[in-house]
């Protein structure tokens, strides 16, 4: 049903936002050290996009990563366009989620508005970083 589709799309948008923030946000913003996924060998969407452009990045990521390597790895992911592409996908999933919710129509007790608020909160940190693309999904 449409509500399930909304939930799935919201979940994907949130996960992509989390993946982007893992690379670009400060620990004070996320509550976890930057680059945690990369250091654990987890290839998130920004990394996957980067690997398609920067073939040598895979070799770097497969080896042991020292803390001192992290800034260079993040810079390579950013230079390859991986972070920007993931931001665009995050916004796209959020817009799709919003469109799906609009297809549901107004729900009792203002639930539709509350779900839009939830969607905005889920992607707000990424949306702020792509303000030229979208400020919030209104």
Strand content: under 5%
Tally of individual helices: 8
Structural class: mainly alpha
Helix percent band: over 70%
Give the distance, in angstroms, between the N- and C-terminal Cα atoms. 22 Å
Mean pLDDT comes to 84
Unreliable runs, pLDDT <50, ≥5 residues? Answer: 131-138
Shape: elongated
Order of helices and strands: HHHHHHHH
Radius of gyration: 17 Å
Q: Major sheet, described briefly?
A: none
What would your notes on this structure say?
By secondary structure, the chain is mainly alpha-helical. It is 71% helix and 0% strand. Residues 131-138 have low confidence and may be disordered.
Give the helices and strands, then pairings.
Layout (H helix, E strand, L loop, with lengths): L1 H23 L2 H4 L5 H4 L5 H9 L3 H6 L7 H10 L2 H23 L6 H19 L9
List keywords for this structure.
138 residues, 8 helices, disordered C terminus
Task: Provide a quick synopsis of the model.
The protein is built from 8 helices and no strands. The protein is mostly helical and 138 residues long.
